[in-house]
Amino acid sequence: MLELSFAYILCFSLNLLLDYVKALDLDSYLLNAFLKNFIDYQPLVVSLFTFIVIVFHYQMLQRKKVEIFCRILVGGTVFNITTRYIRDSLTILIPVYLLSVLANAYLDFNFFSNFYLVLILITYILISARQVRKYENF
Amino acid sequence: MENQKNSNFLGGVTMTKIIDLSVKEKIYESKKAQISILNDFKLEVADGEKIAIVGESGVGKSSLLNIIGLIDRNYNGEYTLLGSLTNNLHTNELAQWRNQKIGFILQESALINSLTIEDNIKLPLLYAGSEKKEFKIEDFESVVDAIGIKPILKKKPLECSGGEKARAVFARGIIMKPQIILADEPTASLDMENRERIVTLLFKMNKEFNTTIITVTHDLEIANRHDRIIQLEKCSQRLG
Amino acid sequence: MKIFRFIVSKIFLRKAILGIGMILLLCMANYITFTAARSILSTFQGYQETKYINQEGIYIANLDPDSHMDMGLINENGTHAVYDYLNNNFNYAFYTDGFIVSIPNTDDMEISLGYMNEEYYKLNQFELSQGADVDFNYQFDGEIPVLIGKGLSTTYPVGSTIKMEESVLGRPITLKVQGVLKQNAYHSNYYALNSKTYYNFSILVPVNEEFMNHANIDLRFNGLMDITILQSTKEQIADLGEVIKDNLGLKFNFFSQQENYDYFNEYYLHTLKIICIITFILLVVITCLSVWNALVSVRLMLKEFTINLLVGLSYSKLKKIFYGYFGILSFINLIVIFIITAFDRYGCWLRKDATFATYGLFGLIGMDWLALLLVAASDILIGVIVVESMLWKIKKIPISLGVLQ
Predict the structure, then answer these.
(1) Nearest CB to C3: which of B107, B113, B127?
(2) Does B112 touch chain C (CB under 8 A)?
(3) Any CB–CB contact under 8 A between A38 and chain C?
(4) Total number of domains constituting chain C
(5) Nearest chain C Cα to B103, which residue?
(6) Is residue C243 a part of any domain in this protein?
(7) Of B71, B92, B107, which has the smallest distance from its Cβ to C404's Cβ?
(8) 3-state SS, residue C252
(9) Given an 8 Å threshold on Cβ–Cβ distance, is C39 in contact with A55?
(10) Assigned domain for C246 exists
């Protein structure tokens, strides 16, 4: 839980940080030129960075193999476990997103500037949820 | 601490001593406490001997096997194996000894799931020298035939039964024709048929190649079939 | 090698996501290091260049940022008056560029004309690969000796002539190639030291007093922007400022050698420090994530590693394998950074962007290679941290436990 929250917070923070840098009125040509190398590719940089979330989901499911199998043994179903997994992940994602929206509001940035991140992260959750099915038979 | 079924070490016959272990203390560290085990423990093993180690859980049976197998050097004591003091050996040398001299037969789960049974069995050959390797590859066929695992060679461990996996672990343990075989509960999760098969193979190795066998087991029936039984008793101390 | 191939293909690549994760993290670390290194190196190069100009007793002109430019006030007479004053009272280095002309050349580039006077030429110590120094005492009506960039040297070898309609003089002129500049010769902007103009497709035209008298207002006005007054005093400069203000309605600042150094030290040093701090923080974060990723890998592959250790793999061999594997990942990333840089540099050739077109393997110049070297160094540092963390984690877990994971 903590690790996943941290991973989500990192992704949203990076996006927020780049938005913040973009909004800065820097009088240094050199610093502007340096930061431009990141700001110009903001969506790409942030999207690549979100890959750490994929790594997180992957390793978490690998570690939970036995737990998934045991749950199925004692009466759980793949559907139930998958739904629970998606629900738990979203329970972490949504508050982190709302927190980032609040930060956007506080800094007077566009509310939806990081919505694309939510879509990317939800996609990861859905893709990784399919992995649960693989551990039905241990 | 040590009850020997055959009290006359080396059975009155002149046999080479290949293991001479003297442990003053071994500290087992868990998250919550430190436990001292194998206090003032001594063990001498002759070439070709079959020894069973029995005792309650937690007395240090597996720890002893790890020390004998050069996996664990974190103890206070001296260990001479095949005439060489092992305490000061470099990790590279230890790895080479584990590869060439010692065969480990563990529970059936000790296989790499992403490799085929064949790759798992051949794993020690990867770390053997090139000349030795050629020789061992020739032997590979005879080993798999003897153990009866030819049909599952291309399968992954997850596609095999417990008995098949146990035999694969056994095959990996003997593929290098080691001088010493260390077996840690090799039959713990097997049915009678497979249990018998593994034990027979183990003793066949001893008979044909004079391999020294050291088995950790809870099964007294199997233990009784060894030359000597070492009963480890609980005399561990909780240090903190 | 066989063991390395086995471990990589049968263990690492079976969990490719972790490898890809590491590649992406390294890629970010490399991109950050490369960008920072290039910014710093480029600024340093610019700083070195200004050292030639920024001599004792000099004053470099700079249009005051608050000065309102009224183009209606800027006329022929005003600029002539300013230059008359300059010629009568000062020694000055004059340089301006960016006048584009189309002449045939092998790469179909638009050619940039740069104009310089003798003082500027002496201060800059241009390095030539062919030919000889230009002579400023040429006949204005005859052939004008010029220096050209390497990119033009095939079409216009030393001794050849270039005929063109020249916008500054507003009439056809003939230029004679006197020398070829060394490849990738450049000029840095005085007040943006990290930005450069490369001379590979430029022609440097020597300007003498007669040329100046016949040149149009564009050349004279643009030349004032960075004009460098030599061997002068604060009082004389103050008078020049007044003359410019009276004739052109513009307020110019003239910075002395010390003021320029103070500016460089305060502005650039401060900015470079900020860049270094940002880079350091980002690298620390990425290194932490890489270590996390590596420890996850160990956790998920523990059984595989320990079984190999059990049957004969030694820790030192495992260490070598880890370093080898990390080396491959770093190499992949270096290639990626190389491709991005080459794409950027070579893109200038494809876009026919003459001022940034450079010579080298795919256009990469010394500064790029040095930055790549620094990237490799940072990779080594991250690699040592990551690999040692992995080994620490593996050694912490007894083989007997790992095997039965």
Answers:
(1) B127
(2) yes
(3) yes
(4) 2
(5) C311
(6) no
(7) B107
(8) strand
(9) no
(10) no
- The ipTM is 0.87
Answer whether residue C245 is part of any domain. Answer: no
Print pLDDT tens along chain B (240 aa).
Answer: 444 443 334 444 456 888 999 988 888 777 677 788 888 888 899 998 999 998 888 788 888 888 999 988 888 899 999 888 988 888 888 888 899 899 998 876 788 988 999 999 988 888 887 656 555 566 788 888 878 888 999 999 888 888 888 889 988 998 888 899 999 888 877 788 878 888 888 898 888 888 999 999 888 888 999 999 998 887 655 554
- How many helices (H) and strands (E) chain C has is answered by 12, 13
Last residue of a domain, which of C231, C253, C288?
C231
Same domain? For C113 and C205 the reply is: yes
User: Which domains does chain B show, CATH number per domain?
Assistant: 9-238 (3.40.50.300)
- Residue C277: exposed, middle, or buried by beta-carbon count in 10 A (0-12, 13-18, 19+)? exposed
Indicate the residue of A48, A58, A63 with minimum beta-carbon distance to C17.
A58
Contact C271, C54 (CB under 8 A): no
Q: Establish if A1 touches chain C: CB-CB under 8 angstroms.
A: no
Query: How far apart (Å, rounded) are the C-alpha atoms in residues C325 and C319?
Result: 10
- Round to whole Å and give the CA distance between C146 and A37: 37
Whether A107 contacts A60, CB under 8 Å? no
CB-CB contact of C283 with C33 (8 Å): yes
* Domain residue ranges in chain A: 2-135
Q: What angle do CA C210, C253, C83 make, to 5 degrees?
A: 15
Q: Give the range of the structural domain holding residue C310, as residue numbers without chain letter.
A: 2-50+263-403
What global pTM score does this model have?
Answer: 0.84
